[in-house]
Amino acid sequence: MSTNTVDNARKVTTMRLREMKQRGEKIAMLTAYDYSMARLVDEAGIDVILVGDSASNVMIGNPTTLPITLDQMIYHARCVVNGCSRALVVCDMPFGSYQGNSKEALASAIRIMKESGAEAVKMEGGAEIRESIERILCAGIPVMGHLGLTPQSINKFGTYAVRARQEAEARKLIEDARMLDEIGCFGLVLEKVPAELAARVAAEVSIPVIGIGAGAGVDGQVLVLQDMLGITKGFSPKFLRRYADLGTAINKAIGAYVEDVKNVAFPSPEEQY
Ligand code: KIV
Fold this sequence. Notes:
The chain has twelve helices and eight strands. With 273 residues, it is α/β, with parallel strands linked by helices. An eight-stranded parallel beta barrel has the order 1-2-3-4-5-6-7-8, surrounded by seven helices. The termini are far apart. Bound molecules: 3-methyl-2-oxobutanoic acid. The site of 3-methyl-2-oxobutanoic acid has 11 residues, from strand 6.
């Protein structure tokens, strides 16, 4: 067995992600929200599974990530953990579960870890939530940062457009990224920022930077599973590559089933007891 095969079977940890960055090995991350999909994603060799609060959109059908609750995130994370043996499972802290104060933030993070079995949490924001991140880190809970486009703040910004195009915002993003690195976050998601800025951040910080709409110069990539599998409808940002058209395939399969049932072509004699 080659060293690579041994490595590929090994459980992914936060420490291993750091080693991957040091080796220049790119990190592949996807979202998942349920047992069956998490099992497929894990078996396919993904490094990190994010139980994203995008579950609010793709699992519940809400227009934003804001309504999803801590209980709902814990439920989705528990399902994913049950289907996963190799990938590191990171669970998003939902809107309202950490912005109040650091005590509340820690209580929410502890609930996620205890009740779901996830191995880390992700939080949107920089300096504004530093105290909460530090308190969670002090409790031994790994934290992944999330800067750039932060969908939980959609009502503040009013748009899902590319962030940090202006000098002042880019400067704050770099400062926030440095701070997240210094206080001990194990990784950072950069969403929808110019590729040049993202590459600069990835070169400056010691922790892995995972991009979504942040170009190729970062340490890894993340996409929402339903988007890259072609299940989501009416969402096609420039950064999104569709690796399958499962929406059409599922539609066709279900259409064929409906037709067979109506025509009594299913079940056949061989499919009966
Ligand atoms: O919730 C989510 O899916 C995310 C990714 C887009 C990074 O935060």
